[in-house]
């Protein structure tokens, strides 16, 4: 699988990564800001997320997800939008969404199911966008 690194279209990876990062910024600060705060038990409070780790960490993870998706799509020969969508749904639900919900289910998360749904759906939508861009810019 590593041999496919040189065959990746890095422009598509950069474009997909930027789209995923922008989606994340909008998802948690505009689209679902109140619901996200409520799922964390912080409704009406200012979230303490202004340190660099809360921006850089998710971006690094999004980059890893994007590169991994590009590698897997290359290895599996996925080139069409239909196949990219199918791959995104399988990997998005099977790994990203379910793992996010699993991580949320712990005694320190006040509302694990809403948190898992908000965050897991972000990753699923992000994966659909990433795979669409990776298939469009080959």
Plain-language structure description:
Helices cover 74% and strands 0% of the residues. The chain has helices at residues 10-31, 33-39, 53-76, 81-104, 112-136. Helix 1 packs antiparallel against helix 5 and helix 4 (81-104) runs antiparallel to helix 5 (112-136). The chain is elongated.
Low-confidence stretches: none
Secondary-structure element sequence? Answer: HHHHH
End-to-end distance: 18 Å
Shape: elongated
- The helix tally amounts to 5
Describe the largest sheet: none
Helix content: over 70%
Class derived from helix and strand content: mainly alpha
Number of E-state strands: 0
How much beta, percentage-wise? under 5%
Q: Measured on Cα atoms, how large is the radius of gyration?
A: 16 Å
Q: Give average pLDDT, whole number.
A: 94
Helix-strand blueprint:
Blueprint: H1 10-31, H2 33-39, H3 53-76, H4 81-104, H5 112-136
What would a concise description of this structure say?
The chain is mainly α. It is 74% helix and 0% strand.
